[in-house]
Fold this sequence. Notes:
By secondary structure, the chain is mainly beta.
Amino acid sequence: INAEYGGKHMSMGMRGNMATSFMFSFTCLLITFFVVEGSVREYTLTLSFADISPACVSRRNVVVNGQFPAPPITANVGDTLVVHVINQLENESASIHYHGLHQIGTPFYDGLSGLSQCPIAPGGNFTQTIYLEQAGTYFYHFHRKIYAMEIYGALIVYDQLAQQSRTPSASYDEERVLIFSDFYKRTVVDMLTGLFNPSFVWIGDPDAILINGQSVINCSKISAPYTCTAGRCSIAKLNIEPGKTYRLRLIGATGLSFLSFAIEGHVMQIFEADGYYVQPVTTDLVTINSGQRYSVLLRAKTAAELAAAGKTQFWMSAYIRWRPVDPLNGVGLFQYPSVNTSEPSQPTPGSLQTYKEQPETPYVLKRLPSDTNIPPFPTSANRTIVIVGKQERDQFNRMKWTVNHLAFGFPNDSALLPFVYFNATANLTTTQGPGAFPGVSNEPYYLQHGEVVDVVLQNTAAINTICEQHSWHLHGHSMWVLGGGPGAWNGSFEQRSSLNTVDPPYRDSVTVFPYNNEYFSNTTTRQPAGNLCGWLVFRFVADNPGVWSLHCHVTAHMEMGMMVAFAEGLDRLPPLPQNVVDNFRTCFPVPAHIMPQLPYSALI
């Protein structure tokens, strides 16, 4: 099978069929939405700015309903989730993405501003209606510019009826949620200015790692113009009862950092990754990249074990890997009931970091065969697309992260999905850069419905000659992660033989590792910028009509162009609800004669 490095071609047959997509059966959509009877879960998310100090440093930040982090959303499989997003941000448009949800039948509610919808203007609102077919651990976040680093909230979908049959070993008494995120004292506006200035100022490493929105920065290290007030913040504390078994839902809401998470004196058993179950793995640390989620089982110590340990408080630690600087403040307390309520001394910097020099991931995840929610694994692909990510400067000396020598650029002041719905794909463009400079493209890869696609993610050394790690997230799908390795992918027998085609994990966020050429390795060997330095292969089925993004989940990398789009099943696009047509009209010249094919009320 020939691999594609560009090849964004569309047949005339597909173009002709798009115009008839509005005739998609209303009855079929109702079948999609009401196979399982459930409740309507309705939430209102009001976005505004507020001054917060989650790590003792004051910062103007996006909040949801006045809260940081955003309030959790909970529902059950079979429910219909109705979310009213109200934008009260001054001079900033918005959108909300539900990370990991496939959005079957609702590609227009995926929440990626500039792709699945027009941005919600200041003072505007938009309602997203999502039928929940997937149980598991998810989260929602801002999906415009790099504001995903600022606002995020847990999204937990329960499936009580299937839980025991799908995960017979996952019996637990209670559950807790831990959200990990980056904190910067600099504002988003300041960071974006640096990214797109020809002199280029990188966003830098975070000033703190937050656990459930909490951390403590040493104020002696903060100077003007920033304000740090000691005592205005605290670390996260997780209260635990002796002898109980807990499900910890771990959510990687970082915008940059790849984390290693451990709890002093405790082991964890991983059994869920990105919403689907994996064969249980016991470990003393869990690696969590941006966009990834895990569920782990943890057996709390008994009263006798606590007495033997001589303490009731244990450190939780989340430390950064693959970056040059770690603020060393990603800590919290895992604490049992005690008459002693004082906080123990902070751990010595680095004392909990013994795992930073371990391999890329100290365990291998495999799908759980009894999880019937995972579709049958396709044993072969009929198309291979190679995605080469590279850092390079354009002809204006601006720094870009490109894919196959092209930076993704959203259609000017518009969104990609209406171009597909209204037969305007001829107006999407790919502009090659002059000479050796990279170009810009907003054209998607066009996929036939049901096509099985292998994607090769190829990493390259950055301009500073360091190989970065990259977290890639696929919208609208989960993917079978077949494997990865160092150097260049060449499709050799040896490389293909190393791929897991028996029980690969089924995920939506994956890591392309830097292997032996990264910041923390003692054996780092500098290599030429652009040198091929690591790869990963995943497989997915194009069975969800719509336009879906594949992008680096390092938010700054995505904003700099590290993204592609897949347009699939365009002859089967679901009809548009009234509020989506209204939204499209705010940034796209929707023909006046077009009427919505589905009233909003039919989705509830």
